[in-house]
User: Which sequence fits this backbone?
């Protein structure tokens, strides 16, 4: 090893400390690497220093640790450490609204097409259309909903629908509705997942209804560079999301108690609600501000739609992670 070189941690590898250990977020390879607090402290200390200096401070045994992180491509050697500045944490959102959930059940009386058109005005990019088993919606009404999405900003539509509607989702349908990303059939005879010719994920589940209560599990962790930066300033699950439940209530998430008006009973403007500070107040409550989460090493990748409550000047998640088992990843 050339001792005159300087060691740098790659700028897309972030060291995060928590009460229960530390993690490296490798945001290019999209993986988490568990490290001890000692390794965390050492990596923080040696980043940007020359190998000569590092050995004089930590002794020759440090070479083994450096070799490991060079091999894992967490660190690299350079003559010019100053040429690798930190990545900007500024975050820019192209569209006002990122995602929406529409739930349709036997009680639904709101105008679905009007809602789609209003979401389009907000530039909504992702839609989850959830049709409950007790819904009396017709195939014609479903077609009207999809017709309204044809010239929209939507990039991706996920559908959850009773298996009795399988006939609606023909190959013709998928050819015309290229934004459809997945269809989940409720009340199927067997559990099965496949991908059709149009690369649409087709899932069949036995459950008659979706369970909106999330389990906080590592498989739901999201860690891209953008979501990492977003998680430092926003609640990544609730930020720029709007949900309409089966009764027409406008909410931050479908299973939250708090609502911001009802589309069935009043002529509420979705845009007006969406843009109100009251509706947006939980968008900024990120994990660094939430008790328990603020000292968790997974706070920048944990995606949770949980409602939040405020008590004694502190924020808490209603649905936290009591039985959460930490991810088992390579340790050092
Ligand atoms: S809910 Fe909070 S404490 Fe639990 S894994 Fe997510 S960020 Fe960590």
Assistant:
């Amino acid at each position: 090893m050339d001792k005159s070189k300087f060691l740098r941690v790659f700028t897309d590898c972030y060291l995060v400390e928590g009460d229960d250990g530390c993690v490296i977020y490798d945001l290019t390879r999209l993986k988490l690497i568990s490290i001890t607090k000692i390794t965390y402290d050492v990596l923080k200390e040696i980043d940007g220093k020359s190998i000569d200096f590092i050995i004089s401070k930590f002794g020759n045994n440090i070479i083994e640790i450096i070799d490991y992180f060079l091999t894992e491509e967490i660190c690299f050697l350079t003559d010019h450490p100053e040429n690798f500045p930190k990545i900007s944490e500024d975050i820019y959102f192209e569209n006002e609204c990122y995602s929406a959930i529409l739930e349709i059940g036997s009680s639904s009386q709101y105008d679905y097409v009007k809602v789609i058109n209003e979401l389009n005005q907000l530039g909504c990019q992702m839609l989850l259309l959830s049709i409950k088993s007790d819904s009396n919606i017709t195939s014609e009404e479903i077609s009207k909903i999809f017709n309204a999405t044809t010239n929209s900003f939507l990039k991706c539509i996920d559908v959850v629908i009773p298996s009795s509607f399988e006939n609606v989702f023909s190959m013709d349908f998928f050819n015309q509705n290229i934004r459809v990303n997945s269809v989940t059939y409720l009340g199927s005879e067997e559990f099965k997942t496949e991908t059709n010719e149009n690369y649409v994920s087709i899932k069949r589940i036995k459950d008659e209804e979706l369970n909106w209560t999330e389990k906080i599990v590592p498989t739901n962790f999201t860690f891209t560079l953008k979501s990492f930066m977003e998680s430092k300033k926003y609640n990544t699950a609730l930020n720029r999301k709007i949900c309409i439940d089966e009764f027409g209530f406008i909410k931050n998430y479908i299973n939250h108690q708090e609502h911001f008006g009802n589309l069935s009973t009043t002529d509420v403007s979705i845009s007006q609600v969406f843009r109100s500070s009251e509706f947006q107040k939980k968008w900024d409550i990120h994990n660094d501000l939430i008790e328990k989460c603020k000292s968790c090493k997974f706070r920048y990748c944990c995606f949770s739609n949980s409602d939040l409550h405020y008590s004694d000047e502190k924020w808490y998640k209603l649905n936290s992670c009591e039985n959460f088992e930490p991810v088992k990843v390579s340790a050092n």
About this structure: Confidence is low (pLDDT under 50) at residues 326-332.
